[in-house]
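Good morning C.,

I know you're traveling, so I'll keep this short. The sequence:
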Amino acid sequence: MAWLFENGGFNTGHGHLRTPNSISSYGALAAILLQANQNEQHGGQSIPNFDYAMAPGVNKSFRKALKRNLAKYNKFTKKKIELDVKDSYEYGDDKKLEKAKWPREVVEAANEDVERETLQAMEGFVHNLNTMHSRAGAQVPFTSINFGTDTTPSGRLVSLDLLQATENGLGKGETPIFPISIFK
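The tokens, ready to paste straight into the viewer:
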């Protein structure tokens, strides 16, 4: 699934969806992709590498949070620290961020922002899969996801927040029916 997101997006049959640029979009589009497949095929739908597929979205959101928090820092301190757009900073890549001599406050604020956004994205993913109708119209798409093998900080964050979103439950704390979670 990651290659669908990273190589120009994908087509649902009713329109083309461009490459997403945040973890929120990744989560929403993953639910849409599962629903679109369910509507075209019989049987359940699965994502065999959910954490790997979502990790690039975490990193994109992290870079946006770095830029945003750096702008706030510069405005507050009257400094002119700039983000090197050629560098691909990733969530949890502490060595690279230390080497770049980023202000600690900026990195901590960016981490908090992306952690909050990732939890929201995983809650949205779980909620969407439990409210979107399948082809039959009277049921939600039968879905399962495999996760737990991406050991990067961004992949681990996706796994942690997916488990947290499932534990949080739906609107009134109801246990989500889908996705069936297969932790590897």
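Safe travels,
E.
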